[in-house]
Specification:
The structure holds two protein chains of two kinds. Chain A is an alpha/beta fold. Chain A is built from 14 helices and 13 strands. Chain B is of the alpha+beta class. Chain B is built from seven helices and eight strands, in the order αβββαααααββββαβ. In chain B, the strands form three sheets. Chain B has a three-stranded antiparallel beta sheet. A three-stranded mixed beta sheet of chain B has the order 6-7-8, with helices on one face.
């Protein structure tokens, strides 16, 4: 992948060598697991490394050590948060959950799974920019409501939610609040000392950390059922041998994702949006300012996304689209439809997401390539000829 | 990892043949819609004497499979008589492309439908339909098979949303098992009309949705 300009960093990122370096000792030398701490020295070393990594993860969120558990990634984290709360409170308090229409699949399908078990789920509509309306959320809360799950940032259009306001609203009503921060952590700061959120999903693989490592912040005393059965690891909430190299790598990746770097990515991203909106019949999807710093999502009318992607691929650029033709389910992006876009807007949407290894000059190159590709595809399109 | 598309598909995708519009076309068709994600337009220039396709062009709004199939069917049809071109099948087009991924079948069938619809359009316009057979429920059903249910990307008949078809005194009534306020209702209504309207004995089309 050396020779391509990779602009799909919301799907996966290249591992940073510095992350790999800190992981190596726990792959080759101290490969014991923390569970063996009472048996032999490498087990103690492994436990120390895990605690240190946990401490750094907790610190990045303003949490305490016992409030952060490692998982296999954000899908597992969100499953644990949603199903864990349902297990703990479904019988005791109520069987109603609130989320939004534009969540990522881990949240949406966890909610659907609970519906099949008799839970009620409210899927909140969002506005044209992808924001949740607080009044609408407030009026959706009932005495039966046990959990609100609203993402911190959208995976496709990058819109940020007002996590602090939502958290306060939930606190007022005595309802637990989970936020999926997969795409925003740690680039968009979230401090749990200031924001009364109860559960936060995070992942390593989108910040140049290893794949297969995620985490869940669980505020102290939050009722949470143990959703997966097994050993007593991770405060008896997440069984399974600890992924110590993964945990160590995650903590390093967080350290490397500095505010300075985020500012650079935002600058590059802003220039790309400016260039792409010069293409006729283009439109920005998501919020113009309250959006992920490394995300741009633009719809180009009269063209279909899979064709755009293949042409860009031939020119050496990797991006993503919300077109039905690109998805395995042949369904158009539920996010673009969720913000009131029609199918044509979903089919013509292209997502660009930046990461550490993108260079400033990538912007000019991709903008030029996409301008050409769109022009070419519009030439062969039966749509928009009267423009 | 091999690309999901054959080398031949990619070649036609990169350099589609016979692409564009014929301004003074003798016949044309538009199949599909932006809502279902694929749309193809076919234009024909036909020799009146020999009924041979002198020129054919297509336009596509769609994925690689749709563009490549559009390209290959114009190659297959060019120079053939209408009667010969009518019998070009999706299977032939797909084989000429070295196969297509199963999930992409509907986008490529659309292009073949486009060719057939353009030929039909020529025949209807030039009085070549020899005998006017009365429209039957079977005929309507066949046409509804060319209307996509955008929810799943398959046609209305196959997705079992056609509840009922009635024909009486030139009025065709189609009952669709979707709510009237469904996001695709207007789009489906429009497409059904488009497909049924050209039938010689149809005066009015009523599309009904369930409550």
């Amino acid at each position: 992948m050396e020779d391509i300009v990779y602009l799909d960093n919301a799907a996966a990122t290249r591992l940073d060598e510095r992350v790999l370096e800190v992981m190596k000792p726990y792959l080759f030398d101290t490969y014991a697991v923390a569970t063996s701490q009472f048996g032999y020295l490498p087990g103690i070393e492994a436990k120390d490394a895990l605690d240190a990594a946990r401490g750094r993860m907790a610190a990045a969120l303003g949490a305490t050590l016992e409030e952060f558990i490692f998982t296999s990634g954000s899908t597992e984290s969100s499953n644990l948060a949603i199903k864990g709360v349902a297990m703990a409170l479904g019988e005791k308090k109520g069987r109603h959950i609130i989320t939004t229409r534009i969540e990522d699949f881990a949240v949406l399908y966890s909610a659907r799974a609970l519906e099949k078990q008799g839970f009620q789920v409210t899927y909140l509509d969002v506005d044209k920019l992808g924001r949740v309306d607080l009044d609408r959320l407030r009026s959706a809360i009932t005495p039966e409501t046990i959990l609100v799950s609203v993402q911190a940032a959208n995976q496709e259009i990058g819109t940020l939610q007002d996590v602090a306001a939502i958290a306060e609203l939930c606190q007022e009503h005595g309802v637990l609040f989970h936020t999926d921060a997969t795409h925003s952590f740690p680039r968009v700061p979230l401090d749990v000392r200031q924001v009364p959120v109860d559960l936060v999903t995070v992942t390593a693989h989108l910040i140049h950390g290893p794949k297969g490592v995620g985490g869940l912040y669980v505020r102290k005393d939050t009722p949470l059922g143990k959703w997966m059965d097994g050993g007593f690891q991770e405060f008896n909430l997440r069984p399974g041998s600890e992924n110590i190299p993964g945990a160590v790598g995650f903590a390093k990746a967080v350290e490397l994702a500095t505010p300075e770097e985020t500012a650079r990515l935002q600058g590059v991203r802003d220039r790309l949006i400016e260039r792409l909106l010069q293409v006729p019949y283009s439109q920005l999807n998501g919020h113009p300012t309250l959006r992920l710093p490394h995300n741009a999502n633009i719809s180009f009318r009269f063209v279909e996304g899979e064709s755009v992607l293949l042409h860009l691929d031939m020119r050496g650029f990797a991006v993503s689209t919300g077109s039905a033709c690109f998805s395995r389910s042949l369904e158009a992006s539920h996010v673009i439809l969720g913000i009131g876009g029609n199918h044509e807007r979903a089919h013509g949407s292209v997502r660009f997401t930046f990461g550490r290894f993108n260079k400033d000059e990538d912007v000019g190159a991709v903008a030029e390539a996409i301008t050409e590709v769109i022009e070419r595809l519009r030439e062969i399109s039966p749509l928009g000829k009267d423009r | 990892m091999p690309l999901p598309y054959s080398e031949k598909v990619m070649e036609h995708f990169r350099q589609p043949r016979n692409v564009g519009r014929i301004e003074d076309a003798d016949a044309k068709s538009i199949e599909g819609s932006p809502a279902c994600g694929d749309m193809v337009a076919v234009y024909l220039k036909v020799d009146r004497e020999s009924l041979r396709i002198d020129d054919i062009k297509f336009e596509s709004y769609g994925c690689a499979s749709n563009i490549a199939t559009g390209s290959i069917i114009t190659e297959l049809a060019k120079g053939k008589t209408l009667e010969e071109a009518k019998h070009i099948t999706w299977k032939q087009a797909s084989e000429a492309l070295g196969g297509l991924p199963p999930i992409k079948t509907h986008c490529s069938i659309l292009a073949v439908d486009g060719l057939r619809a353009a030929i039909e359009n020529y025949e209807e316009r030039h009085g070549l339909i020899r005998e006017h057979k009365p429209t039957t429920i079977e005929v309507i059903r066949k046409r509804l098979k060319r209307v996509m249910n955008p929810m799943v990307g398959l046609d209305l008949v196959r997705t079992k949303v056609v509840k009922d078809i009635e024909i009486a005194d030139g009025v065709v009534r189609v009952a669709i098992d979707l709510p009237a306020d469904h996001q695709f209702a207007a789009n489906i209504r429009e497409e059904i009309s488009e497909k049924i309207q050209p039938l010689w004995d149809v005066q009015k089309i009523v599309v009904e949705f369930t409550e």
